[in-house]
Here is the input.
Amino acid sequence: MVLSSSKITEIDITILKENMMKRFLFLALLLSSMTMQAKEVKEEWKGTTLSEETIKKIQLSQVEYKKCVGTEMQKEGYAKIESRSATDAIIKQCETVLSKMRKAYVDAKVPEVIADRHLKKMRITITRRVLKQLMFAEAARAAGQ
Here is the structure.
């Protein structure tokens, strides 16, 4: 079956129109996402504005938090309960120490989002370590019985 040349050009034209519309929509979406991203960048914080004193306060708070967690882990009561519950209780006991670190961030005019993100990261890291150690101790006790 042979198509006439007028039929081929009509089909080609419709395909070209569809492709142009797809490209136009793609570009429109791309431009709109770029403008949204530009708005977010305005609130970006420059990490070089912390003073040495503020950095030292934050580091001391981190050490204090880790000491608090270590001290709480050594208490005998946590060995008697399930490791996940014990981990939760230990982290909650030391939450007040993290508030000191948050205060140091806020006093240094660090955006709350960034301060909270760092505290969350630290909390998660310590929680994983504590849970791992408590689960190991729980398994060792179970194996020794």
Summary: The chain has two domains: 1-44, 48-144.
